[in-house]
Specification:
Layout: E1 3-7, H1 18-25, E2 29-31, H2 42-56, E3 59-64, H3 66-72, E4 83-89, H4 94-100, E5 119-123, H5 132-141, E6 145-148, H6 165-186
Parallel strand pairs: 1-2, 1-3, 3-4, 4-5, 5-6
């Protein structure tokens, strides 16, 4: 069984957040802890994630908000080969996030490279941190399947998401897709007649 690395966003995922429930409910999961949840710095956060992936060998990522952008930063990095798939829930748009939290975030530009691992991006129609148009754009840029779950806000405690069982089902779908992809890559090509 592959490990699941939980990637919270700005301020971490506090008590009652669906990621905290995930850690309790899923014995194969662990949180990638950051030194400073309130003042995220991309290089420091990325260093922690890369170390966690090296320790795990291979893992699935379950990210929320700024954690989604952290996962997307793995594109083009050698450690990305260790990611079996990523569930990216309510990614934030950096310009909006920086405007809402001035001077707190040092995360550079929005990552735009295609992700080299299977991914599902989950968002909503009324997320204050990313418009639905931008959600669709980054889903395409990251080469991820995009799921809009309607009027769900930022898919956090404030929008009514405590224990989020649909998230478990989405990860299972991602694991199935990742397994199918691995089988198709390892099968020899058919010979033409």
């Amino acid at each position: 069984m592959k490990e699941v690395l939980i990637l919270p966003g700005l301020f971490g995922s506090g008590e009652g957040h669906w990621q905290q429930h995930w850690l309790q409910d899923q014995p194969d999961s662990r949180c990638v802890i950051q030194d400073d949840w309130d003042h995220p710095h991309v290089d420091k956060w990325l260093f922690r994630l890369e170390n966690a992936l090296e320790e795990a060998g291979e893992a699935y990522l379950v990210a929320h908000s700024l954690g989604c952008l952290l996962a997307a930063r793995l594109a083009g990095r050698s450690v990305a080969r260790r990611v079996k798939g990523a569930l990216l829930v309510a990614p934030c748009d950096l310009p909006i996030t920086e405007a809402l939290h001035p001077g707190q975030i040092s995360f550079g530009d929005m990552p735009t490279a295609p992700l080299p691992f299977p991914s599902i991006v989950v968002g909503s129609m009324n997320d204050a941190y990313m418009s639905v148009d931008r959600l669709a754009l980054f889903g395409r840029l990251w080469n991820a399947e995009t799921r809009n779950i309607g009027l769900a806000g930022h898919i956090n405690i404030a929008s009514g998401f405590g224990r989020w069982r649909n998230g478990y089902r989405l990860l299972e779908a991602l694991k199935t897709r990742s397994g199918a992809r691995k089988r198709s890559v390892s099968m020899p090509p058919a010979f033409a007649m």
